[in-house]
Specification:
- The chain is built from 2 helices and 38 strands.
- By secondary structure, it is mainly β.
- It has 3 domains: 169 residues, no CATH class; 203 residues, no CATH class; 82 residues, Sandwich (Immunoglobulin-like), CATH 2.60.40.1930.
- Strands 9, 10, 11, 12 and 13 form a 5-stranded antiparallel β-sheet that branches.
């Protein structure tokens, strides 16, 4: 429940590494924090956190700025950029809201492109005092990338690092690397393994860290799986699992794709208990994400999309969520298909995350884009903006009941008492509505503390815009408008107010 993302800075070439976490004791998100700001092409942030308010973050960044990189005019710009990258880590105290330390992993930095060509770090907490950082190192001469690691050990308030070493090496291509702790001082690393030379095969392999060293890579996907596509791995105590998608070439019955779940129980992968959650002969299955609650209840989210030319008025992509007991993978899995509380099918989804807030409440955090060329912050359907509105990150909360039905959960419940997503201290708006529920009319009130272009729109629960109530420049002050709801069908509607970069929403219930 620790989220890290990048935002644009205040000047050209500047990037911000931002952070927000969910405080489970209060069931509230923290305020957005900026961990690092620089001109060194920050990328690939990752983090993990033990239970003592300490979070360890890692990221890659170049030794070049935009000015130094453009000055060298490299013949191979991609290779030059990768060779200039280093892996960094930071230790952050969430309780005190303070940065304890920030270090670069050991490397040769005598020139702008000396040392290892590094990318894609991952952070894994093994205990309250030990952590792993794994990342990829490219060997351009051999045309391969190995997986390296360091161990971090807590010594007082500081964390010290071991010398970098190779965790896994090989002649194949290793991508989509996931690392997760399984028990005290133990971890599992899983990746998509693409063979080189001859016929290309995409399989899934894994290696186990026993606290000291890594085991030899072993096959995790089924022996006949030659076209695996996407994967995700999660562990919670003694329970865990791998969710992955694969393409199946069936020349007789037609080609199709599958979403597969392999459970991890009692310290081992249970391949014999693997279950096919979804078989789809129409859509491409992408971005599977797995979440596991402390009682063993699991949720698997997956993006489905037809690989055809899109138009703005048709279904672009969708998210389906499966919920069941990972300890009994062959049991019942409730399938929530393209539910409006979970996704907006008119948007293009490029990033997907899922997690449990409570045992019966889930959140989905997506990065989604409207299929229109507009230079304005987009207003999400049945969700709220998470971070900078122009980054198109959307948070949605919901519950899947035991009968499989999906119930909406108000995302604003998790931001009470602190500045909410997309808020601005210089142009803060407060949106209210009364009576609510209403029958034939309602009064909508909002407060502007600064002049702004104001847009207010009403959406139905399916995410379709019912009406544009306001779109005009307005000055500072308190405003009220009367909304005629007599012609609206009974049900739940969403009123959304956009002022500058600030988005507020409220649910309006119309009863007859």
């Amino acid at each position: 429940m620790h989220f890290n993302w990048l935002e644009k800075g205040e000047s050209f070439g500047e990037r911000k590494l931002c952070h927000r976490y969910l405080d489970f004791s209060a069931h509230r998100f923290s305020t957005k924090r900026t961990i690092e700001v620089n001109h060194y092409a920050l990328n690939s942030p990752a983090s993990d956190a033990p239970a003592d308010s300490i979070e360890i973050l890692s990221w890659a960044q170049s030794r070049h700025t935009e000015n130094s990189f453009s000055a060298i005019v490299p013949t191979n710009p991609v290779q030059a950029f990768v060779k200039s990258q280093d892996i960094w880590f930071a230790v952050y105290n969430t309780a005190k809201d303070s940065l304890i330390q920030m270090n670069r992993l050991e490397d040769d930095i005598s020139t702008l492109s000396s040392g290892r060509a590094e990318a894609n770090p991952r952070v894994t907490l093994l205990s309250s005092s030990r952590a792993l950082i794994t990342w990829q190192v490219m060997n351009f001469a051999a045309n391969k990338a190995d997986i390296w690691y360091v161990l971090l050990t807590k010594n007082g308030p500081q964390w010290t690092q071991t010398p970098p070493a190779i965790a896994v090496t090989g002649s194949d291509v290793m991508t989509q690397i996931k690392v997760s702790a399984t028990a005290q001082d133990k971890a599992v690393m899983v990746w998509l393994n693409t063979s080189k030379g001859g016929t290309l095969h995409n399989t899934i392999k894994f290696s186990v860290f026993d606290g000291t060293s890594w085991s030899a890579p072993d096959l995790l996907s089924a022996p006949d799986d030659k076209s695996c596509n996407y994967l995700d791995v999660r562990f919670r105590g003694e329970r865990g699992g791998l969710a992955y998608t694969k393409f199946v070439e069936d020349t007789v019955n037609g080609h199709y794709e599958k979403l597969v779940l392999i459970p991890w129980l009692s310290g081992n992968w249970k391949k014999a208990l693997a279950v096919d959650l979804l078989v789809d002969s129409v859509n491409h299955l992408q971005l599977p994400k797995l979440a596991i609650c402390k009682d063993g209840i699991a949720a698997v989210a997956v993006k489905r999309e037809k690989m055809i030319t899109k138009s703005e008025n048709q279904r672009i992509s969708q998210i389906d969520v499966f919920k069941g007991d990972i300890s009994q993978p062959s049991g019942v899995w409730h399938h929530a298909e393209a539910n409006p509380y979970i996704c907006d099918t008119t948007r293009q989804i490029s990033e997907l995350n899922i997690a449990f807030i409570t045992t019966d409440t889930l959140l989905v955090l997506t990065q989604e884009y409207p299929m229109l060329a507009v230079n304005a912050a987009s207003i999400p359907s049945n969700g709220i903006v998470f971070g900078d509105p122009y980054m198109n990150q959307v948070l949605r909360c919901f519950s899947i009941r035991d009968d499989g039905s999906v119930v909406d959960v108000d995302e604003n419940n998790y931001f009470l008492g602190i500045p909410g997503p997309g808020s601005s201290q210089d142009n803060k708006s407060v949106l209210q509505c009364y009576p609510n529920p209403c029958t034939d009319h309602a009064t909508v009130r909002f407060d502007l503390t600064g002049p702004s272009l104001v847009t207010m729109e009403l959406y139905n629960i399916q995410g379709s815009r019912v009406a544009t109530l306001i779109r005009q420049d307005m000055s500072t002050g308190l405003y009220e408008i009367d909304l005629n709801t007599s012609l609206l069908k009974p049900g739940t509607y969403v009123c959304r107010l956009l002022t500058g970069d600030t988005v507020h929403s409220l649910k309006l219930i119309v009863a007859k």
